[in-house]
């Protein structure tokens, strides 16, 4: 029997980084770290990833005991890096900060509450090794969501699609990216981050891994309605100018209505003995046009506000502390 020398898997295997943004997650940190470490060693044992793989926890300015917990974990485990931002910058910025610290061959982003099970990472790594540079985690169902969240999410994907924005349906921020994809993403200079849209922009070969989402481990959702709406609007304004075009359309429609009204007024005046009676016929169009104009100004103002934020070119985050890894050389902010 011919014997084939097995390749030394651990020498060839790529390294993996798992980036976990955390905001007031003291209730889940310990369990999350334990589960992710176990997932890493399983992946290492199966020869999929190198032993040099690491978990990057990013403390997004938490007000609870998240940072002391992370710091302790990073000091006790070689496989854990704890990164602290100077203050709360929001999920997308925290995730971006984490990505900017990684040096590994593949990077997985995952939420601290482990609603997106780490058991799916193996399939993502396999897809990456098969040549896909971006692997989206896609939820098969939304049973763990409230009726309201399901409906609004569905509506949002529809609206985005009709605006021509290319989003992966039911994919949030659980994904794997190759080093090249991460480095390319980090070149995007925008301040208003909507990462799930930007990753689609990259255009590298991508595929999806399907999974069911678990309920939150503990603690509560950091995405109340206000934040959800703000992220949704960021997605629209960062990827589409359709609302601005809609203003032009609205102008055309109301112009058409006005023209119809003029024809009608002239018709009544010329071909009957009466004229169009006064108050209501003046006030209704005046109020209508007035409110449409304010609405349009509001939409233009929203884009103007985004431009204002973008031209200031302020750093997206500042690092306060990094424990467990050599800090990245160069400017501390991204
Ligand atoms: N998060 C963050 N900064 C924030 C808000 C949230 O880093 O300002 C993190 C949070 O700790 C979690 C992830 O973003 O790891 C997603 O938040 P959450 O699970 O509460 O959102 P949901 O699953 O309810 O949409
Ligand atoms: Mg969650």
UniProtKB/TrEMBL annotation:
Membrane topology term: Multi-pass membrane protein
GO MF terms, alphabetically ordered: glycosyltransferase activity
UniProt keyword annotations, A-Z: Glycosyltransferase, Membrane, Transferase, Transmembrane, Transmembrane helix
Enzyme class: transferase
Residues annotated as signal peptide: none
EC number: 2.4.-.-
Location(s), subcellular: Membrane
Protein name as annotated: Glycosyltransferase family 2 protein
Organism, scientific name: Microbulbifer pacificus
